[in-house]
Amino acid sequence: MHSTKILKANDSATRIENNTDLVTEILIRLPVKSLLRFKCVSKTCLSLISNPDFCHRRNHSLTISALLLLINPHSHHTSQYEILNLDKTNSFLCNKILYFQGIKILQSCCGLLLCCGYSPEQRSKNYYVYNPIITNLEKSFDLLPNQDGRFYNRIFGMVLAYDPLTSPHYKVIGVRRSRHKFHFVIDIFSSQTTSWKRFTGKTPFEEDECVDFNGGVFCNGVIFWKTGSENTLLCFELEIERVRKFAGPENGDFLSVRIDFIGASRRNFHVLCSCKKGIDYTEYFVYEMNHDLSGWILKYRFNFDAVAISCSVTKVPTSSELFSVFRVLAIVVAEKAEDSFLVFHMAGKLIRYNLNDKSFRSLYHFDPNI
């Protein structure tokens, strides 16, 4: 009797395992740590979890849920960040304020924060990776080791790369000036090895190219940077450790296309471009990059005339003036087109601009006395 029950149980388990649709539906609902364990259970689970379609379905709702606003930018001691909730369904993010003593947040990536602080004793900067989920403050901060005595004094930019669906470990990429004039060095820190290593491949750029290394964005295993060229990106493919330049979107209806902002949403990389028509950049486009880096997809097209008027900007800014009064903070391309939006700062306000119906509303008013 006991053997019969075991045989029936094994038969049921085999039927479930052979039903890949059912197994996929089960796996999609599991937390990330459980998924990483299930990769070791069977070849079937490993194949399903590693499939790009599974990653897309698992993260179909993964998007930017909040913004961190530094509300005392002139303080040299305590940094105070207010969490601006963009997700109405997530009450956990409401009315939260973070305080950091002598540390500023540089970047966020899938829940982890890359931070920087100045050490008066060492007369240099220290870099940390902060996990806000860990309640023990000492354990929540990972201090990155200094590779050599003057490593952080020559830093041009640091980027955090973390994808919990593919690995529990993160990497930090540091770009710094070489001892040789007009050359850069790329160093890679791995939380798995807790050490730095030098990138030894070719770097197709030099110091005078004005690459924005402070504004790097990580998405699908690739780090992207804006360059001094209007419509060119620099990308670093982490898995194969290759650096190359990448052409931005083209639009034959305009004289030129300029990339003004880069960002990631729902595991997709996006750029905001201003396009020159006549004597000025008058129209704006949001493009999405194909996952295989093969090209671009046009997602949205719009202008800011109505928004500028509503924000009491008496004159719609020209392209050269625009980013002195207008700063994009986030592009959120949602699963449903009507839910996609842009968040930007203009005239002392944070504006949420719907990319589908062109409606907008104020999210936050900055204190003019700060």
UniProtKB/TrEMBL annotation:
CDD domains: F-box_AtFBW1-like
Domain F-box residue range list: 21-56
InterPro entries, sorted: At3g26010-like (IPR055290), F-box-assoc_dom_typ1 (IPR006527), F-box-like_dom_sf (IPR036047), F-box_dom (IPR001810)
Pfam families: F-box, FBA_1
Organism field: Cannabis sativa
Name of protein: F-box domain-containing protein
PANTHER family: EXPRESSED PROTEIN, F-BOX PROTEIN INTERACTION DOMAIN PROTEIN-RELATED
SUPFAM superfamilies: F-box domain (SSF81383)
Boundaries of every F-box associated beta-propeller type domain copy: 103-246
